[in-house]
Amino acid sequence: MRRALALIAGVSALALLSACSRAGGDTPSTPAVADQGPAAEIHLGYFPNVTHAAALIGLDKGFFAKELGSTKLTTQQYNAGPDEVGALLGKSLDAAFIGSGPAINAFSKSDGQGVRLVAGATSGGAQLVVRAGITSAADLKGKTVATPQLANTQDIALKKWLAANNLKVGDGAGDVKVTNADNATTLDLFKKGNIDAAWAPAPWSSRLVIEGGAKVLVDERSLWPNGKFPTTVLVVRTEFLQQHPATVQALLKGELDAVDYAEQNKADAETAVNNQLKKLTGKALAQNVIDDSWGQILLTTDPLAAQFPQLAKDQVTAGVVKSAPSVQGFADFTVLNKVLQAAGKPTVDAAGLDHK
What we know:
The chain is α/β, with parallel strands linked by helices and 356 residues long. The chain is built from 14 helices and eleven strands. The protein has two domains: 32-124 and 229-342, D-Maltodextrin-Binding Protein, domain 2 (3-Layer(aba) Sandwich), CATH 3.40.190; 126-227, D-Maltodextrin-Binding Protein, domain 2 (3-Layer(aba) Sandwich). The protein has helices spanning 2-22, 53-60, 63-68, 81-89, 100-109, 153-164, 183-192, 204-210, 238-243, 245-264, 266-281, 287-294, 308-317, 334-342; strands spanning 41-46, 72-77, 95-99, 115-124, 126-130, 144-147, 177-180, 197-201, 215-219, 230-237, 297-299. Helix 2 packs across helix 11, helix 4 (81-89) runs parallel beside helix 5 and helix 10 crosses helix 11 (266-281).
């Protein structure tokens, strides 16, 4: 009897511990890592695109450096998300401004452990632009369409749209050929007549129209409720977030400063973005290009979390994966909402993505 009672007591204790470990709706069951205070250095990735304007403004105006204080900021630019995912999972990046599709992939590839979605950055800013004479989806049969990289955000959006219009990706006469090229190469290919269309982010969609003579067939905003969808978000390695929450908070303060600055100083914000693009690519954008690009985007720290389950399903429709990756537990807006509250701004909703 004593042994039986002891066994029951032990089972009850284990059950209680298990219940406690699930209490509070914390993000997934990654082993807890102790807070080590501000990091000595943070490695941040981003793209030289207008869709990464929050990052570009934050760098140009010194908002990140100001908030990070003694923490050294080391940056690395990328052309598309899949390369950034490799850097995050390989721990050569601590945080990254990245497209929604690759962000989901980073979470999925690490079995929900490697990264956390901590903020939004940009809504909108992607278009399908085409040659003159192409006026419908059916006109793309037998044509070649470019995207920045296989399985990147625009690649998934294109393939989903083609599937919705009963078009097959392939090399047949009635198929649509999809090729991958970095954005600058896509512009050259279009000018030379080697491709017929591109699903591209700003400013490249604008450059294809203004410099290459393309026409807009689809503005991706038209495919989403209220015209809003997360083009660029901010993710952080889970371990780094746990070890250095103060550094992540400083990074988010810098981003919020950049977003606020853009809202209040449009012309100066465009100049800041152009300054960084010239520094990164060697060439500033023409004013009509950056104006057109700016009109496509909305800078926001809200990652529009409610859209992520659909974005995960879109990867299946696009043929990128066989089953939709889970996004439960992907979001951790604890630090972001702390920053927003301190600034007197509304907090953002995780839409249930902060629970497994």
